[in-house]
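Data deposition worksheet. Section B asks for the primary sequence of the deposited chain exactly as it was used as input, without tags or linkers unless they were present during the calculation. Section C holds the resulting structure in token form. Section D is free text for depositor observations; keep each observation to a single sentence. Incomplete worksheets are returned to the depositor.
Section A, Depositor: J.P.
Section B:
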Amino acid sequence: MNRRLAPALIALAAVCYSAPAAAQSCPRTYNIYDLGPIQPEDINNNDEVVGLERQGPFGTEVAVSGYFDSYYVSWGWPALWLYHLAPPGIPNGVSGHRATAISDNGEIIGSVDDLSYSNSRAYTWDMYDYWNHGPVPVHGPPAGGLLNSRGNDVNNNGTLIGNTGTMDGWIWQNGNQYDAAALNGGMSTAVSDLNDADWVIGQWFDPQAQMGPFAYAGEATSWGYEDLHGCLNTTQPSGFTKSWGELLDNGGMAVVNGEMANGNSQLFVLDRATCSKVGLTASVGPNSIDPVSSDAVNNQGQIVGTGAYGNFEYPFLYENGTTYNLNNCINSNSGWVAHVATGINDRGVIVGSGELNGVEVGFALEPSTLWWWD
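Section C:
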């Protein structure tokens, strides 16, 4: 049973709309739920959501978490119970904070900014223990955590990853911190995603401003390394001058972005074992969009991210070799326009941000075939 958030919760109004699934434009029927004035960043397999809420006249970012539950919406209950994660004791010394990822164990990673807006610290929270929080002590001193550092992801083993302001990636595992650049021969390295096998994906940068994706795996000091840029160019189409790794699932799949000399880029699903790759093509159905960047992948092989439609950006879902514009999965008369999709869990629940009747809010898209106990 999912543990629900108790006192000091803030109820948000929920609105649900269902859209019929047209076979050519949407793979299934979804219900969409209003999550209130937040920007969701991630959802775990317990339907726990993290992200940020903008408050006040200057839009100060406040880290939030909450539990998504659609079962009682028809009874007038909110779809999300929201909990603010403001670091106790230092709210007057920060300018904002955001939560970026959550594990199935309720461990949350994000960052806290200081008043100058020029520095940030990677920060962790516990979904179930408000007082269990603090800066990630990357690189040791200062005691408050490394300045200008942001937390990107956390897995179910408690491994953390993030980057500094100079795009130097770090990995925090079993009480030890590793410099991703040191694992890559000293080249500047940024990390972007992490799976439960402790594989880390990201990109390297050489002195000639070239870049390519890599993957690490290992325990303690025994780290393996794969240069996925070479893998990307071993099969057609090749000729990528720059590329970067974006996502990993818990199997052998990576999502990479490649750019050719003419500036054209394309997202690929890459099998690390065989170097075979499949390009993400334009979405089917009306208002076709071209996938531009990926934000999340689940262990069913479903990918969500951002696609381009003229000068506009809309979210996409990729599964079984087909790309879909998620707005085609929403009733066109509902007042909803989805802009970004940032998370998807193994149940297929998608979170992101959009507009409801012109007001910016977060949303959850839930397959209508799911039961509340699934």
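Section D:
The chain is about 0% helix and 55% strand.
Residues 266 and 319 are 16 Å apart (CA to CA).
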